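Handout, section B. The chain below has 253 residues.
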Amino acid sequence: MKTFHIITTRFAFAAALLLYGTAAHAEEIRVLSSVGIKTVVDELAPQFERATKHKVTVVFDLASALKTKIEGGEPFDVAILTPPLLDDLIAKGTVASVTRSVVARVGLGLMIRAGARKPDVSTVEAFKRTLLDARSISYASAGASGVAFLATIERLGIAAAIKAKAKPAASGDEVGANITSGASDLAVLPISEILPIRGAELGGVFPADVQTVVVMAAGLSTRSTQSTAARDFVAFLMSPANSGVVRAKGMER
């Protein structure tokens, strides 16, 4: 009965969007999205396009880089960033406060080269030893995960030792390349960014006591001329019918 309800909900939501899309003219919306939720958006945006006939153009980058672009005048209809960055844009009048919505959450994980021995992250002490024993650790220095990682090693009292062998990177792609090339044996990224990297795999999740949950929140531009389609897109991302996609990509509601 539960499965039938989920299927019914999914088709009802899709039918409603399809009805809207055929009743109104197709619009094009521009989405500036954090790479932390890229795999979810990559799967759901085409589904939204098929259901509504709207076109979705997505630009992915680190949330901090996208905020800088927005402040520099980059046009957008929807921004998906971490809450502090989105809230700052709301305070500046760039994003409409009433449209702010939490779309998904994701924890941090350790990435290893595919087939490598899994590190021990069973306890905080084991996690700490794993970091200290690593030859090189890579992380995205300007990303939310990188900032959280630096705060974590400070809290654990091992910042100096880790920074001495750290390999900061400009992006998640560079972090992944450091692992697949063997330049680093461990890396830190949100779980949702680790899972799709070919040649790498999730080595383990941060222990609960030192875990940082990265939140992805969406908001609409106060200057958007496609606000109805933009709102529908955010609603589609947040639909309960699409929660399975969110979970499959390593994220949570």
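Note. The two ends are 23 Å apart (CA to CA). Compare this with the example in section A.
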